[in-house]
């Protein structure tokens, strides 16, 4: 009755089903791993954002690499903004996905070290972006700032290429080592995203808090892949039963036709 399973068509179909089952199970485990990674990251970010501010030099120093546990930690610093060393970071978007710049201003601490401060987003003056844009001035004199600690940007992490030949005072990535060389100063590793004081007239536009990654979606995908893997053998057996039934019906029809045919005289 099931001899048809040895046919070329059914052997290929069975092999495909056997390959699909472990592949879908593995994809489910991969999605579950992504769910666990994203959940852990969300917990780490939430913990960092909720922590009390600490002096910036407690977390970083010249040449230091900011770790994932230190990222988004709230820090404070006292000093003055140095607009002479200010640059803008190209191809950055705001909450409305408008393309513009981030304003990166050196902040000279009381001990002479420099902290890089991302003061926020400003719109681009035009499509060419070859001229240095008009940048709102920061507070003058000594001021205390608060911000979220961030690691240096890299092409690998951001996907942004560090282009050469840019217009004067424009950069693609925020890199404390390069800024230390450009400013000829002792620059703390990483940078901060400014949260206070808020700018006058709302510009530069402060960068919002990081949102949670959608970990629940990965969990749903994992369950989906495992359900698919369970459905494959069920679907295969359904096809086998239907094929066997169709063949049996065809045989019965042929037998009935043979019985109804009048005998030769």
Description:
- The chain has helices at 8-50, 155-158, 176-183, 215-260, and strands at 54-55, 74-81, 87-93, 99-109, 114-123, 143-150, 170-171, 191-196.
- 20% of the residues are buried.
- The chain has two domains: 3-43 and 215-249; 53-202.
- It has a five-stranded mixed barrel with strand order 2-4-5-8-6.
- It contains four helices and eight strands.
- It is an alpha/beta fold and 265 residues long.
- The chain crosses the membrane at residues 219-239.
- Belongs to the SURF1 family.
- This is SURF1-like protein.
- It is a multi-pass membrane protein.
- Keywords: Cell membrane, Membrane, Transmembrane, Transmembrane helix.
Short summary:
This protein is α/β, with parallel strands linked by helices and 265 residues long.
- Pairing-aware structural class of the strands and helices? alpha/beta
Form type: elongated
Number of structurally distinct domains: 2
Rg over CA atoms, rounded to whole Å, is: 32 Å
Number of helix segments? 4
Poorly predicted segments: none
**Major sheet details:** 5 strands, mixed, barrel
- Topology, number of strands: 8
Widest sheet, order of strands: 2-4-5-8-6
Q: How big a fraction of the residues is strand? A: 15-25%
Share of residues in helices? 25-40%
